[in-house]
Amino acid sequence: MEKIKQLQQDFADFMAKTDFNGQPKELYEPIAYTILQSGKRLRPMLCLLANEMFGGEEQEALWPALALETFHNFTLIHDDIMDKAPLRRGKETVYQKWNSDIAILSGDAMLAMAFQFTLKPQKGAELAKQLGKVAIEICEGQQMDLNFETCGHVTIDEYLEMIRLKTAVLLATALQMGATVAGAKEADIQRLYDFGIDIGMSFQLQDDILDLYSDVQVFGKKHGGDIADNKKTYLYLKALEMASEKDRKRLEHLFTLRMDHDEEEKIEEVKAIYDHLNVKEAVEQVMLDYDRKAFKALEAIDLPEERKTHLKTYAELLSGRKK
Amino acid sequence: MEKIKQLQQDFADFMAKTDFNGQPKELYEPIAYTILQSGKRLRPMLCLLANEMFGGEEQEALWPALALETFHNFTLIHDDIMDKAPLRRGKETVYQKWNSDIAILSGDAMLAMAFQFTLKPQKGAELAKQLGKVAIEICEGQQMDLNFETCGHVTIDEYLEMIRLKTAVLLATALQMGATVAGAKEADIQRLYDFGIDIGMSFQLQDDILDLYSDVQVFGKKHGGDIADNKKTYLYLKALEMASEKDRKRLEHLFTLRMDHDEEEKIEEVKAIYDHLNVKEAVEQVMLDYDRKAFKALEAIDLPEERKTHLKTYAELLSGRKK
Predict the structure, then answer these.
(1) DSSP states of A176-243 as a string?
(2) What is the pLDDT of residues A77-93, one digit of tens each?
(3) For residue range B295-323, what is the model confidence (pLDDT) as tens digits?
(4) Do B23 and A132 touch (CB under 8 A)?
(5) By the CB < 8 Å criterion, does B128 face chain A?
(6) How many independent structural domains does chain B possess?
């Protein structure tokens, strides 16, 4: 845990030294506003921990770490426009606080900045290519997510592909970048990337569960927001798969109701169906499968086990195995 | 002219070979729709001509040329959302044909693709850095342009800085990229960059003039659109500077009127003031100064004059010196 805290502090210091100011201020203020908000810094941490695992230079890895955080925040700013989200991390979203033109432009500038940051270390060209690849994948994932809102039928496989593209690939790329900077072997970089995909999948499924089942206070969001928004999450798709004809029809009907309906009542009814079907347990089982696969990939990496301790601990914290 | 036509053809062939298809189609169709429309391919041409001038490999320069065109089209897609423009090159804009979410995302993907393309040649890291720099500058320029719509007073210097950032730097970067790929000397790359800035400034000022004074048929846009939109162009700012107190007040008043007013009448009245003040001639004089400065920078480049012929001819075509 000491090492993890130290890397978190190093990254916070590095961010604090970075100058996000510029002219015109309408472009730069939203950038500083977004990126300097406290977040988990999950992607930078995965990058730094992967780098540390392979004995890389921390100073070099701080650049892709910063690129990843900048990039991630760009995606949030643009996603919030599309999702019409009023709040993010408990604060007004950029398009809401300023306007959507400013949100589009500040996001664009952050995407360009992210590339600039990847190009600082020696292996810049490789890191920038990795960022380019993941950036396109994330656009694909976000577009799939938008499509799901309007298309009638979504399969579980389509949903898994969407969260792979929208969430998992960026965690995998964070690890890949750290390992690349450290000069790890190709085969090990690939294993670490696979590890990232699997913990990413598990992480997103956990998010789906937490939306309905978490302690409200801790998570800071309203219970059942996904149900209120008719979001076809894994819970919903799994429930459809497991449900009787009658329950399936009822669920499908409930997921056509909009705001005008009693929201609380709808959430309660959907939750009752989920609970009756043991959907939460079914999703937790899938998460566990991803976690197992993830840690197997980590084990296969050609390094002494003790070198993997910090990344492993961090990933266990994420997956909720370790409190 | 033969060489210019050949490079245009080579670029068209290179574009035709590039695969802009992918899944989900909602993301990729707008990309292909935008980039495969016929355009002047101005930025790719500047890149290829700069490369040819310094004796570089055309195959290598085609990548940054493609990056520049992809990047330029990304800026158009996002700008059209902000400007609420229904048409572009006589066809529906992306946000209009699909929707603004799709326009945001397709644009984002194109920005990432542009970086991917710069990273293909040997000097990829350098080209990607150049793209990162210019991308941020263009966001700054677009934000300044948005600011001008709402802020009361714009100085001529502020306007020139806006068009430098919004238009000129990308032409300059196109030349810089071509010269970089060809391995030109730093000092010569800088001269060519300066040349690009000055022809870019002249090019934009010409655009301001053409909006009001061109033959409608040729330009394909309505006369006086900038006046109808109350756009503070160089013509307007120069007129304010040259006008009597009475004309200045009248102009300022006319530029507060919105759609509800008789548009034709307003354009005619503004044009009459411009003509009376000889504003067009004054702006042409400024253009000429930029052109002179541009060609002086080109002359200073350490190459035999005959090597500069193609780029010079192309730039003269652009500036309208050569028909």
Answers:
(1) HHHHHHTT--HHHHHHHHHHHHHHHHHHHHHHHHHHHHS-HHHH-S-TTHHHHTT---HHHHHHHHHS
(2) 999 999 999 999 889 99
(3) 999 999 999 999 999 999 999 988 775 54
(4) no
(5) yes
(6) 1
